[in-house]
Amino acid sequence: MTHFPRRQFLQFTGSALTTLGINYFNIKNQSLRYAQAVSASTPRKLALLIGINNYQTVANLKGSITDIYLQRELLIHRFGFHPQDILLVSDESDIKPTRAGILQAVEEHLIQQAKPGDTVVYHFSGHGSQVFDQHSPLLENLNSTFVPSDRTISVVNNQPQVSDITGKTLFLLMSAINTENLTVVLDSCYAGGGKRGNLTIRSTPGGKQYTPSHLELEYQQKWLSHLNISPTELEQRRQQGIAKGIVIAAARNNQVAAEAYLDDFVTGAFTYLMTQYLWQENSNTPVKTVITNISRSINSTFTSNQTPELTAKTNSNNARKPTYFISQPVPTAEAVITQITGKNVNLWLGGIPPQALAAFNQNAIFQLIDNQGMEQGKIQLESRNGLTGIGKVLELQTPGSLKPGTLLQERIRAIPSDYQLRIGLDNSLGQDITIARNEIAKIERVQPVTLQTGEIHYIFGRLTAAQQAELKNKQAPYIPPLHSLGLYTEGLDLIPGSFGNAKETIENAITRLQPKFRSLLAARIIKLTLNANSSRLNVVAALNIVGTQETVASQNFILRSIQKVNELFVNPPPNPQINYENGIPQIPLKTLIRFEIKNQENSDLYITVLVINPEGNIDVIFPNTWSDADNATLVPAEKTLRIPNSQDIWQLEIIEPLGITEILVVASKSPLRKSLQSLQTIAKRQVNRDVPVTIADNPTEIIDLLIEDIHSGTLRNIPSSTSKTAARLSDTTQLATMSITYQAVKSSQTQN
């Protein structure tokens, strides 16, 4: 596990710092230091990033400090913040995230410095909670809180009082920051708590039995006096909305904010996806669109019980403004150079999608680009630890372009040839957990993993009484028998079709699930190629409902040029006939659908379209005409592929199981011969051969062949030294893979 020590990849300015002195309210902790203010003639960009892993009286976290490093690198390299204007407050910093330290940092770094027109970012990653507030009409007299590292609980008149910083105090502090360009990011929650599967929930116990401490109430009173606001007026303002700017919360009021184990590190699920998304997004994209797309990613990547929420100041246009209120054209990127030693470079890989991290190890290649997105050279990755990497220069067109801060775009991924499915073992297995570990370890390319020790893909466990009750409360369409064995996502969402009967033994369950493991592994392997934000191919895919003109969902491969991003990226408005949950269309059963894939290149492409249903089963819906097998996957230049087309004798209908289905579109400049031959063999077994095929019998082998086809097409465009790798390479100039997601629901579920 890596917490990214500062000496590894960050350049701090500790030697140049000067002491500010005492704040407004004489908080005696005078350890806060930062650089001298720049000229007031130009707007500044200030950021205060707070991350708390170590708590004195509540459970520790592991990913909060990672979050603030993610934000710091993003703000510097994507949004133009000066390092000296970003203050980190964490367990590792000089000023600690105690109650006094946090409040002092807000006052001195933000309130005392910010001027009208400045841009301010406040980020908090840590535990959240709630306290009773009889004067607050919000949330049934409950006030959300942010838990400092030195949280204390004292009992006054048999009532526990906590030293948390409340939402009311945050409102006052926001009111005091002298700019409207304020963004508050809160990666915490006050629902749940503890663990959920392989996720840790950023919440600690609270509720009506807790009240704010006298210290907190006195602090609020001082700010009320300073701002000349009465308590009644404060509550009226809070009912109207936030004080100014925007607030981005990692989850809704009744949901969890989770931190997740990724490849060698722990991070907030929301913070990682938000920062990663913004590395690959044009800075002019409205923040409302950004949060919608992140919501879709969280649901498909981590948990269905977390939906980020954006709140903008009432009667403002803030939700339609760019993220952090900053509009400046910056090329999209996956990485940045942080240090140079001869021909070796240190990299920060903040733009890598979480599901693709395994494809960015030795031999992955990046293009070095200038401020206009034009290639200036190539960097080959030699090693990676978490999100820090070491690379070497393969070629350099302009010597002066190699410097810290230079952005890098993905060129080639290195997909491990021995990639394994990681299955977490849930504590619900009890004494059978050792048997489960031994049985799973016998399966080729499947690895058993203890929960909360590293990245996992799925969880094997028994359905508990609590989980069954939760499913009943949610009116789930399928509720397995109590104590039955099956598979979950890492956030404990059930994998449909994976549960057996209540008396099934561990051995029998794992034997029954082996085909499922193969399908799930195949799906994970092909998802390592997803590169919609980095591919250079110009392809558009859309999902339409038969009989309507509106598009339900679509995705473009964005040409990586700052001049063309806005005109080419089309985020279609929601189809009025369909409901959307977290940006995912909810399509009723028995609905007929059609896919359209447009080849907008000036050369032919070879297309494969896969469908992965909620149970993990994989169908190939294109190619589907096996009588003309040589050109079965070919789509000519500037032509549109329709699936099914008007001549096909079959239709695509939304059927059970209910849940999320993914459509994966693979477009290649090279023929996909090996995988096509294997699909032909399957098709020959069918009575009617010119229809889609199911690859349930050997999905991993077929997907491996598809990856081998992709690798073969890549070898022609890479250095000979790289071609000797055992990994399978994927070139963004030769391959495009995108995903469209929808959720199958019963008709009644689509009603508003």
Describe the secondary structure blueprint for this structure.
Blueprint: H1 6-9, E1 18-19, E2 33-34, E3 45-51, H2 64-79, E4 86-90, H3 99-111, E5 119-125, E6 128-132, E7 142-146, E8 153-156, E9 159-162, E10 165-166, H4 167-176, E11 181-187, E12 194-196, E13 199-201, E14 211-212, H5 214-227, H6 231-240, E15 246-249, E16 258-262, E17 265-268, H7 269-279, H8 287-301, E18 309-312, E19 335-341, E20 344-348, E21 365-369, E22 375-385, E23 388-396, E24 407-415, E25 421-425, H9 433-441, E26 446-450, E27 458-462, H10 465-473, E28 485-488, H11 506-527, E29 539-545, E30 551-556, H12 565-568, E31 579-581, E32 584-588, E33 592-599, E34 605-612, E35 618-622, E36 634-635, E37 640-643, E38 652-653, E39 659-668, H13 673-683, E40 693-694, H14 699-714, H15 720-723, E41 728-731, E42 735-745
Parallel strand pairs: 3-4, 3-5, 5-11, 9-14, 11-15, 25-26, 25-27, 32-42
Antiparallel strand pairs: 1-2, 6-7, 7-10, 8-9, 12-13, 13-16, 15-18, 16-17, 19-20, 19-24, 20-23, 21-22, 21-24, 22-23, 24-41, 27-28, 29-30, 29-33, 31-32, 33-37, 33-38, 34-35, 34-36, 34-39, 35-40, 39-42
